[in-house]
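Researcher: I'm preparing a figure for a lab meeting and need a structural model of a single chain. I don't have an experimental structure, so a prediction will have to do for now. The sequence is pasted below. Please return the structure as tokens so I can convert it later.
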Amino acid sequence: MLGLALCAGALPSLAWAETGYAGQVVRCQSRDMEWVHCDMPVANGVDLVRQLSDNSCVRGSEWGTDRSGVWVTLGCRAEFRSRTPAGTAGTGERKVRRVVRCESSGRPQNCPVVLQGAPVRLLRQLSAMPCREGHSWGARRNEVWVTRGCQGDFEVGAVDGSGFVDAPRLLVCESKSRQRRFCGASISKGARLSKQLSGSPCEEGRGWGWDARGVWVDNGCRAEFQVN
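Model: Understood. Here is the structure written out token by token.
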């Protein structure tokens, strides 16, 4: 009886500890590549404390905050903790991308951004029309320009010359009606197939491939790729 009483007395403390943990940490998950918003306090900042997904979670492109909470997209699943006023040092992911979205409906479009000589690369093509540097997009002075239907997310590198965030990016590329398609993304190190989405095979060299300008797919291959 004494043992049971001791166990019963311990239960409220255990429950409080679990509730306290859940109260500090919010799990926010993007499944099927959708955009998801999770309410949490953000006044003092938010840290990513544990990534749960194989897909990358980089602030600015796969997750971020707004006035009422944190958002995730493109398959990022992670746990986030609100910072407290007394201690704002976090232990989570600290990489941040500067991302500018610029979209052309067919005509030239200029998107102002402070560059100060910083490099720009195509982070992710959003349109069916191809985004090729120098042909349908580019950067000059303090703007990114697009034309010919190119729509994309563009990453601005560091002004000090240290380059871009060195973390893989997720790119979905789909060959519909077994037609060849090019999906633009500036690639410096390589690309790999992370998840096949189609019944048709995705064999490198036949169903898909890549170069410095992006990834191509053919013969019905639809897949998620990690590029860097």
